């Protein structure tokens, strides 16, 4: 028997864009500070008038609730251990459904759901291939366990870069060797590579600085004080996908430029971009975005999840002076920086173009470029390399 846990967040009537609650996974390796970080963020947002729903870490509840030997069971009784991991996954999905229903009661308030670990975390705690087996058995895909969440904020373990603060005495944790912890940290991060909104908070600052960067990432997701995109862009030549470090995420993007008339779609109008995305084997993600600021480093950006039928409806407003863009996007991590690399397939005049991008939390953030890429020059601010300019009919 297949149990189906397919919970859709996106229930819109007609073409009305509802005030959907934002859902943010805050995760990381052992002793990364994520749980205290969630408490910090929750308090700050509540002081700003937000209704904050916080989902507890389920694995810790299992451990403290009677299964203190959870990690030991992985060696002593692997079958029982895997059953526990599958139960944790189901519990997380049920909890997410219940919290979403609770949040729906407060549609007239600014609200957000913060998850202490997400369903995709389980992939790091079982042998390769087992998590995919869980998904198949439950009738799920990475859509429900990863991509349906608005953002993932990853806090790096103190065992990597802040070793003297690593707490080996925490009874809800059994990893005693720092390298084992770093390996687990890397596996957990790898589980989320490919999510379009992944923010990595490393140990390059002190604890207070780490908390402030976490809070800044949450504000970015919520569009506070305004929806912004801070992004640097680089031209790359001589690329082949074999040189991208594993693990990496990949998606196929079909992008159309439209001009929506007044009241043409859910109260939105004007020049916009719509996308159909197939992501890591999960097809049919649809987005509508409006940007301002041209090619500058800091731009205004509003993005909405839409349905396939909305995408088809908006196609009627396609701009006659723009061609569709088709591109393959690779996501990868280099020195705790999250990069995306676009390979343009269409239009024909852009075929073979590679653009490397990195989204920043602050325009002064330092960027260390991947040594394995042949980066020709930075093109941030160059109007020739905006997607809209690339799509312009020749």
UniProtKB/TrEMBL annotation:
Domain of life of the native organism: Bacteria
Occurrences of domain CYTH (ranges): 227-394
Protein name per UniProt: CYTH domain-containing protein
Species of origin: Candidatus Niyogibacteria bacterium RIFCSPLOWO2_01_FULL_45_48
Molecular function as annotated in GO: GTP binding; phosphatidic acid binding; phosphatidylinositol binding
PROSITE patterns: CYTH (PS51707)
Family matches, as InterPro entries: CYTH-like_dom_sf, CYTH_domain, NadR/Ttd14_AAA_dom, P-loop_NTPase, TRPL-trafficking_regulator
Lineage: Bacteria, Candidatus Niyogiibacteriota
Signal peptide residues on this chain, from the entry's feature table: none
Short name of any one Pfam family annotated for the protein: AAA_28
């Amino acid at each position: 028997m297949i149990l189906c846990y397919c919970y859709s967040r996106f229930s819109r009537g007609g073409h009305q864009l509802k005030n959907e609650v934002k859902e943010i996974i805050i995760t990381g390796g052992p002793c990364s500070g994520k749980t205290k970080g969630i408490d910090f963020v929750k308090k700050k947002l509540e002081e700003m008038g937000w209704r904050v729903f916080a989902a507890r870490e389920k694995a810790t509840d299992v451990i403290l609730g009677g299964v203190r030997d959870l990690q030991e069971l992985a060696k002593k009784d692997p079958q029982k251990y895997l059953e526990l991991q599958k139960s944790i996954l189901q519990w997380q999905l049920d909890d997410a459904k219940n919290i979403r229903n609770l949040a729906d009661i407060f549609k007239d308030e600014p609200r957000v759901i913060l998850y202490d670990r997400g369903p995709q975390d389980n992939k790091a705690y079982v042998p390769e291939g087992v998590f995919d087996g869980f998904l198949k058995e439950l009738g799920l895909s990475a859509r429900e366990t990863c991509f349906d969440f608005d953002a993932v904020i990853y806090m790096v373990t103190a065992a990597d870069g802040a070793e003297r603060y690593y707490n080996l005495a925490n009874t809800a944790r059994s990893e005693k060797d720092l390298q084992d912890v770093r390996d687990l940290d890397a596996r957990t991060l790898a589980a989320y590579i490919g999510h379009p909104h992944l923010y990595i908070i490393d140990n390059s600052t002190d604890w207070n600085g780490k908390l402030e960067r976490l809070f800044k990432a949450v504000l970015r997701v919520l569009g506070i004080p305004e929806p912004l995109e801070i992004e640097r862009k680089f031209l790359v030549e001589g690329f082949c996908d074999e040189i991208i470090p594993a693990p990496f995420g990949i998606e196929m993007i079909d992008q159309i430029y439209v001009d929506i008339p007044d009241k043409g779609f859910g109260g939105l109008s004007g020049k916009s971009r719509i996308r159909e995305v197939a992501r890591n084997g999960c097809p049919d993600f649809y987005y509508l975005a409006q940007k301002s600021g041209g090619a500058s480093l800091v731009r205004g950006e509003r993005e909405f999840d839409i349905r396939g039928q909305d995408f088809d409806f908006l196609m009627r407003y396609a701009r006659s002076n723009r061609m569709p863009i088709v591109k393959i996007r690779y996501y990868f991590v280099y020195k705790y920086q999250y990069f995306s690399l676009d390979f343009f397939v269409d239009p024909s005049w852009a075929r073979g173009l590679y653009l490397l991008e990195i989204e920043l939390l602050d325009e002064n953030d330092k960027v260390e470029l991947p040594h394995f890429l042949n980066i020709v020059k930075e093109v941030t601010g160059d109007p020739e390399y905006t997607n809209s300019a690339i799509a312009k009919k020749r």
